[in-house]
Write a structure and sequence with these properties.
By secondary structure, this protein is of the alpha/beta class. 35% of the residues lie in helices and 26% in strands. Pfam families: GFO_IDH_MocA (PF01408), GFO_IDH_MocA_C3 (PF22725).
Length: 361
Amino acid sequence: MAENPTRFGIMGCANIARKVARAINLAPNSTLYAIASRSVEKAKQFVSSINGLSETVKIYGGYEQLLDDPLVDVVYMPLPTSLHVHWAVLAAQKKKHLLIEKPTALDAVELDQILEACEFNGVQFMDGSMWLHHPRTAKMKEMLLDSGLLGPINYIYSSSTFSAIPEFLANNIRVNPEMDALGALGDLGWYCIGAILWAKNYQLPTLVTALSDTIKNSTGVILSLTASLHYDQPEKTVATIHCSFLSHSSMDLGISGSKGSLHLNDFIIPYREDSAFFHFTVDAKLVDLHIGWNLKPERVVVSSQLAQEALMVQELARLVECIRKSGCRPDGKWPEISRKTQLVLDAVKKSVDLGFKPVNM
């Protein structure tokens, strides 16, 4: 561990916080300093549920106490989306850097309030899209940027689904309009939209359309959704996303160009922590009589010394240390990525609300 590691405080004891708490301890330049919940008892239960968590971790029975602790450098916020804008703005005003779970806000208006508070107070913002920090992602981007390899991108497909149990569909906060009104679109569609934007170098689409197969629960929260994103420039690209609480688990990403394609089935969470792979194919053709192919996809394996969530924490801690010790400015790349993802998510939601009409961006 670094001599003066970046100190993280976790605000809220959601299940995902257990994974990030582990990541904070794995990252060599960070330490888990404090846990806050609405009650001391719940925070204590959280700490006791994580193997190897230091007994020196501070426990707070209120979010305000965490924000008032001058030793907390970064606040990780896995709260319900409806609570993000209030607590994130307050955290930024207290000069706390922010790692916030996706979706970052209920809409871009709320997110802009958070980002403006971060910019005004000189604090770093990052959302919890862990897959962006895996070295496999960098390797795939390297190949996509080689225009002579796959050619101009003309089709992208992304899915994130799981088959929820009845208890989830009845009681989970992600289907509660008061807590996470965006449902599957916010929880899973964030990844799908983010993957398409990533593949298109964060160029916004020109047209977004939700399909009429969208399924909602009795309170109007989206349980399953398919949408298309269209690009006109610099090349025409069609992208589709599918996110659902009602389908078997999938985390698929497929990117096709004029010369080749790239595919993986675990883009959000790799099958293994220490390595991940993807397939790519260049100049594939059917053989005579169409009884097979002239080649098989090539498998590219990328190793990783740390789990992707620990790499995310490590990068955020590095940025925070630079701000704290060297007077660096916060890296604007991460809030820009979040804001563009939120804008497209808003457009998909608007298309649903308009009766599945196309929405221009």
